Amino acid sequence: MEVNTFLAFDIGATSGRAVVMTFSKDQFEMKEIHRFSNGIMELHGRYYWDIYHIYKEIKKALCYCGKENIHLTSIGIDTWGVDFGLIGADGVLLALPRAYRDSFTEGVPEKFFQQRMSQMDVYKRTGIQIMNFNSLFQLYQMKEEHYSPLEQAAKALFIPDLLSYLLTGNCVCEYTDASTAQLVNPYTKEMDAELLCAAGVSTSLFEKIVFPGTVVGSLTDSLSKETGVGSIPVIAVAGHDTASAVAAVPTTDRNFAYLSSGTWSLMGIETEEPIISEESYQENFTNEGGIDGTIRFLKNITGMWLLERCREEWKREGKDYSYTELIALMEKEAPFRSLVNPNAACFANPQNMQDAISQFCRDSNQSEPETVGQYVRCIFESLAFSYRKVLTFLKQVAPFPIHRLHVIGGGAKNDFLNQLVADVIQLPVVAGPSEATAVGNGLVQARAAGLVCDRWEMRRFILSSLSPQIFVPQKEFEMYKDAYQKFLSLTSK
Ligand code: LFR
After folding, report:
1. Ligand 1 pocket check for 300: Cβ under 6 Å
2. pLDDT (tens digit, 9 = 90+) per residue, 358-407?
3. Domain Carbohydrate kinase FGGY C-terminal spans what residues (predicted)?
4. Which value, to the nearest 10 degrees, does the dihedral of the CA atoms of residues 185, 188, 194, 195 take?
5. Residue 82: CB within 6 Å of ligand 1?
6. How many other C-beta atoms are found inside a 10 Å radius of the C-beta of residue 368?
7. How far apart are CA 202 and CA 196, in angstroms?
8. How far is the CA of 479 from the centre of ligand 1 (A)?
9. Does the beta carbon of 47 lie inside 6 Å of ligand 1?
10. DSSP β-ladder status, 209-210 and 264-271
């Protein structure tokens, strides 16, 4: 039987992993072979990604494959969106890529709308939610600051493309990741020259867009030798991690909403056409690019970031809680004591997350959380209510009825939250795969190798290889009504 093996690198803002996916007949198996930490790095008041650290970790995984004689068919890389590296005319990486959590773009969209193009026009052209860290605003602000790497740059490469470039020496601009930049027209799927001009950069800064499944090139000779894996192709997968995750929703029909749950909670629907309307503009929903030319109509909700940051703080105090311990502590506490709006600007990158949560509660006349369990409860309940709010809007605009919510990504492992969400949204929650991003990444490689033909076949493959868990609502919404009203009052603009 023919066996194909793909190596999927899924690199998030806090950690990265290398997963080997072995395909035989109509099933696949997955094995995580390497995991490493990632994070933003402060240098002279600016925040960067240490791309060389990521590169070295990628090499470690390749060396492991070389040593273990794992014969790879191809490699694919997905990462978070919007950030990019700048390359000089001679191919040199000019600086570490700046990180989207750097506050350098705070207030920049407002300036851009005033001086360059109206907010409505930007939204109509791109369908992308306004977030200050979008590449459009990063580029504009870098220009304003005369940021020297941009002054000298011949090319900008989004992070997955940048890593593929380091591995192969070839440059591409992959569509799903480019779509997060707020520079792409979602109908033509090409860069919008007027937007680039408004940001002050040349249209030649970006390569022509390619679609998931395109071969970027082969590993450089020196890497092939050093790692021992040989001259294997690097595929431009759905380079945006959320697009890879959505590709891996285990479903056979379109009647679903998804929640890609990790550092961010990305909640939306998959559509054939963009939804760009007065309402989507008001609610700041985004139309990012998916595989097979689909649109990911979704909203960013600040997700486990709130808890991840609290956990780091508790760790610094010497208490390294596991998720199981946190949930046990939370279960001892009364529900709905305090709620926050996870998307409030104060949670984007605070000095101290617990202080930010307490401050939010004080400002909204609520009791501040006092124990670890109370913080966890506050975060989970606020997230569940955010999901209900977003789903209510999705139901209004979806061109099809929504029958269930698929929770994919690391958050799918949180049974407590899955059940709470099912109760709060009054729809079944289908949880898993928790490694959806790596699965989507590997399946796009499998498609490039001719093993599957489209996203529906990819999804059938997932269903026959993995079994998602289903949580049906067990409580009436009536019992959440008052708390939900309170939550809505905290999130109204
Ligand atoms: C998730 C994600 C989101 C994007 C955010 C910043 O990892 O890719 O989809 O909005 O990171 O790029």
Report:
1. yes
2. 999 999 999 999 999 999 999 999 999 999 999 999 999 999 999 999 99
3. 257-449
4. 20
5. yes
6. 17
7. 7
8. 33
9. no
10. unpaired
Task: List phi, psi (to 5°) of 191.
Answer: -65, 140
The structure tokens listed for 30 are: 């997955």
Distance CA 299, CA 296 (A): 9
* 139 torsion bin: left (phi>0), alpha (psi -120 to 50), beta (else): alpha
Return the ligand 1 atom nearest residue 82 CA: 12
Which protein residue's CA is at the shortest distance from atom 7 of ligand 1? Answer: 80
Residue 142 has pLDDT above 60, yes or no: yes
Ligand 1 geometric centre to CA of 126 (Å)? 17
Q: Is the pLDDT of residue 45 over 80?
A: yes
Tokens 């794992």 correspond to: 70
- Report the nearest-CA residue for atom 8 of ligand 1: 80
Nearest CA to ligand 1 atom 2: 80
The rounded distance, in Å, linking the Cα atoms of 49 and 26 is 38
Name all domains of the chain by residue range, CATH numbers in brackets.
4-239 (3.30.420.40), 249-432+453-493 (3.30.420.40)
Which residue from 128, 162, 241 has its CB within 8 A of the most atoms of ligand 1, so it is best to mutate?
Answer: 241
Question: Could you list the active site residues?
Answer: 241
Q: Ligand 1 in contact with 140 (CB < 6 A)? A: no
- Which residues face 264 on adjacent strands? 302
